[in-house]
Amino acid sequence: MSRIHIVTDSTSDLRPEVLKEYGVHMVPLSIQIGDKTYLDRVDLEPESFLELMEKSEELPKSSQPAPGVFKELYDELGKDGDQILSIHMTGGMSGTVESARAAADLTEADVTVIDSRYISYALSFQVIEAAEMARAGRPMEEIVAKVEGIRSKTKLYVVLDTLDNMVKGGRIGKGRALVGSIMKIKPIASLDDGEYTPVLKARSHKKVVDFLFEDFIERTKGKNVKGVGLVHANGLAMAEPLKERIIESGYTDIKYDFTTPVISTHTGIGAIGFMFYTD
């Protein structure tokens, strides 16, 4: 009987032991800092990356895996007729999912590629559910439908602590960043259906925590919370109090960790990502 293998990328923020537990295959993106290139979460861990990024005058560059990398994995996983479900970070922020689709066209294996429309644990919510269903022997059509359902009931917020990386990346000018720094603005944005959408400009860490916690309570009222994720790039001033308030509210199973270097490159040091999904 054929199996269904689950593939994702390093922006899912899944640690090696979790990948092993669920039998998920991870394809890493790459990060270039100066003249050195690293594989995300393979030879560059989040904490050491933050130190390198802080010292770098230029913004590190991230790159999606080449189609050939995906094809090699697909060929191996599908050689005995097994199916493959490949779930990846939003195509709005990276060409990773398109690289996977190109490889799916090149391989003889039976591959289904999904754009999760999310990053971090919001991506892993879909990956883990798919892995559990595949292990239980559920068919591809049913797993894909479930993943799409999870996507429609997921909420993800990203909060920046500084605008330094926005300046380095040429997204905003130094003058605008200086004004934001003086006013201690913490931009909050949502990632809905793959689109980065500004939501609020908070004036303090406390106001960020208040907004995110109150929004979580309101959106989950009367619903069954299936998963909560909280990641940071040394953003403990916001992450820790938010985590404590959620625990105090009665939900204790929070996925909590440093986020991947690929995401930290875009957000900068001090940022957090907060996400959850319901039935």
Q: Summarize this, please?
A:
The protein has 279 residues and is α/β, with parallel strands linked by helices. 42% of the residues lie in helices and 27% in strands.
Written account of the structure:
The protein has 279 residues and is an alpha/beta fold. It has 11 helices and 13 strands. The chain has a 6-stranded mixed beta sheet, sandwiched between helices. α3 crosses α4. The relative contact order is 0.16.
Q: Helices, strands, pairings?
A:
Elements lengths: L3 E6 L6 H7 L1 E4 L2 E4 L2 E4 L6 H10 L5 E3 L3 H11 L5 E6 L7 H11 L3 E6 L4 H16 L4 H13 L1 E6 L4 H5 L5 H9 L3 E7 L2 E8 L2 H16 L4 E8 L3 H13 L5 E5 L2 H7 L4 E7 L1
Parallel strand pairs: 1-2, 1-6, 6-7, 11-12
Antiparallel strand pairs: 3-4, 3-5, 8-9, 8-13, 9-10, 11-13
Helix pairs in contact: 3-4, 5-6, 9-10
Shape: globular
Total helical segments: 11
Largest sheet: 6 strands, mixed
* Order of strands, widest sheet: 10-9-8-13-11-12
Number of strands: 13
Mean pLDDT: 91
Order of helices and strands: EHEEEHEHEHEHHEHHEEHEHEHE
Structural class: alpha/beta
Give the oligomer, counting copies of the same chain as homo and different chains as hetero: single chain
Uncertain residue ranges: 168-183
Strand content: 25-35%
Q: Helix coverage percent of residues?
A: 40-55%
| Rounded Rg | 19 Å
Distance between the termini: 31 Å
Note the main attributes of this structure.
6-stranded mixed sheet, 4-stranded parallel sheet, alpha/beta, 42% helix, 11 helices
